[in-house]
Design goal:
421 residues; alpha+beta; Beta-lactamase; 2 domains; six-stranded antiparallel sheet; three-stranded antiparallel sheet; 13 strands
Length: 421
Amino acid sequence: MRRTSLFALVLCLSMLMQAQPLKRTTPESVGMSSALLHNADAAIQASIDAGEIPGAVLAVVRHGKMAYIQAYGNRQVYPTKEAMTTETIFDMASCSKCMGTTMSVMKLLETGRLRLLDAVNRYIPDFEDWQPKEGGGKVTIRIEDLLTHTSGLLPYGPAAELARKYGTPNPAGMMEWICTCRKDFEPKTDFQYSCLNFITLQNVVEKITGQSLRDFARENIFGPLQMNHTDYLPCAPDANGVWKNTADPVWASLMPGQDWRSIVAPTTKQEDGSVLRGMVHDPLARLLNGGISGNAGVFSNADDIAILCAALLNGGEWNGVRVLSPLTVEAMRSVPRSVSEFGRTLGWDCFSPYASNNGDLFSRQTFSHTGFTGTSIVIDPENDCAVILLANAVHPEEGRGGMIRLRSVVSNAVAGSIVKK
């Protein structure tokens, strides 16, 4: 056992030493215009000047290279100011759905360990299917319904109430409540974006693999791609009720003698005057699931997300390492025929009302996702381009607005800078 642990440690350290970001290049070398990309700079700076966001990082991937990466403004403005850097790690919020949960589900799909048509209660026996109020036969809720947000599950849950009922954190209590909560419509007949869909998918992944979502994603996605500034950050209250991280993230080993939180962008100011920094912003993910959650919880930076985007633009492979097959990637970014009217792919978004971050100029093949904290990933396979916009728009408080429009404007500016297809 001791020898095995030593080997695992050496292997982990070796991977960290080999980790490298995408090769940086000039926009012109990949058919883009530096001058036109400054339109994206101007849009982001205008949002900062208007007080909509404290700062941001923009990264543009094209032809497998980092064509553009810039930091703007501040990553912290309360209680003190800290300048934004391109290395800043962000709470990815709902982008966790596509980065962690979806990628894990698709890995299980291509290895034959589940299928899209499997009933959810094949893996979670207490999960109740949809049944009409007036009686009649039940309709099965399937894995595909969760991925496309067509299951009928509620959008969210009463986090504080559930924390009081079950204690915190309590992932089993969270899932118990989801299993019997109201379903709003028959599966595949409507679309309703729901965090509960992806918490359920988390439980499916964990039931099949016997691993936490954090460990499975690290072993099968983040680790092989050398995304060594990407992790879930477990947390729980101590004996005095003070929330603390219960494990260090993978990048802590890259910062010996330093506080690993120092490169994390803080989010919202709490009632006691502190800000969340290194603990997930989403209440269900934090209070009920202790930081490891299917709907939120991934922390990452622009360089790591760029690697993931490059792999997906390259059929699931980057730097000689394959994490998904080309057919799996194609299926993941395609809207299933059974729910084609709603515009959601398997875990991503193509043309639903939530896809305005795609902008107006990228191709119809574009797929994307956003996060409540201010994060956005847009990937256009036809133009071999990805736009990563990261902001902590909820710092130091929520509700200032402007992020939805900014995402679209930045996507348009990046698309407009492509001068050679």
